[in-house]
Amino acid sequence: MKASDEDRVSPDQFARVAGSPGETPRFAGLLRVLWPFLLLTFAAGYLVRAAWPVPALGTTEIGAAFLALAGVLAWSVTAGRHRLESFLKGARGEESVARALSFLPAPHRVYHGLPSADGLLGGGDYDHVVVGPAGIFLVETKSWYGRITVRDGAVLYDGNQPDRPPLEQVKDAAGALRRELRERVYRKLDVQPVLCFAQGYVQDGRAGTSGVLICTVHTLTDVLQEPPDVPLSQGIQEQVAYYLDHRTRSS
Q1: pLDDT digits 0-9 by tens, 86-100
Q2: Which of 37, 115, 118, 201 has the highest CB neighbour number within 10 Å of its CB?
Q3: What pLDDT digit, counting tens, does each position of 152-200 carry?
C-alpha cells in the first residue's frame, strides 16, 4: 500500500544538525592513552643508544632501567585502558543525547562539539548547543549510572557528591557562550544551562537547581520545548544560527 503524503516523514520536519557528537572525548581519550607510550619510546631509545655500540652505562644499570620501563609500560597499559573506557563512555553518552536531539522539530538548530571561542573554557568545547523557539540551551552530557538527586543545591550521584561538581561545569560553559553571543550577536541574549544524564535515573525525569535544568535523555526534548514566558523570535533565532553556522565552518 502506497503511503499518503501525510504519512511521509520529511527531513525538513526535524532540527538542522551540525557537528560530530563524541568526537572530542574520543580524541582526548586516545591522546591520554598514547602520550605515556611516546615517553617510553624515547626512554627506550635512549637506553638502546647507551648500550650500543659503545656502552655509556653498565650492564647492570641498563638491565635495571629496562626492567623499570617494563613495569611502567605494564602500569600504563592498565591505567590507559581504564582512562580510555571512561572517555569512550562519555562519547557514547554524547551520541545518545545527539540521537534524541535529532528528533527535535524544525526550526530547531543543534550544534554538537562546538569549540569555545577565544580560548574560553581552556580551549574545550560545548557538548551540545540548541537554538529554538524556547531559547538557547547549553546541554552538558553526563554518562553516570545510578540515581541522580538534588540536595541543598548540589547534584548527588547515588547519594555522593562527585569530585567535579557538574553544576559549576555547565554554568561556566553556559556563561562563556552567553558572553560570546552577547558580544557577537545581540546584547540581551541568554543561554540556559541544561545537565542531561544519558544513563542515570532522575526522579520524575527532570529537576532543577541553581538556574540549571536537570533531565534524562528520555525527557530532554520535552524540557527544551516547554513554552517560555518570552519566546525567542524567529529573527533572533536566525541571527544566532547564522553566527553559529559560521563558527562551525571556520573551526
Answers
A1: 777 888 999 999 999
A2: 115
A3: 989 998 988 888 889 999 999 999 999 999 999 999 999 999 999 999 8
Closest CA to 227 of 151, 133, 131, 93: 133
Task: Compute and round to an integer the Cα radius of gyration of the chain.
Answer: 24
Query: What is the pTM (predicted TM-score) of this model?
Result: 0.77
Sketch the domain layout of the chain as residue ranges: 15-250
Q: Distance between CA atoms of 45 and 50, rounded to whole angstroms?
A: 9
Burial class (CB in 10 A: 0-12, 13-18, 19+), 44: middle
What is the bridge-based pairing of β-strands 16-18 and 109-115? Answer: parallel
Cβ(109)–Cβ(130) below 8 Å: yes
- Our CA dihedral for 58, 63, 68, 71, rounded to 10 degrees, sits at 170
Which of 148, 109, 142, 132 is CA-nearest to residue 224?
A: 132
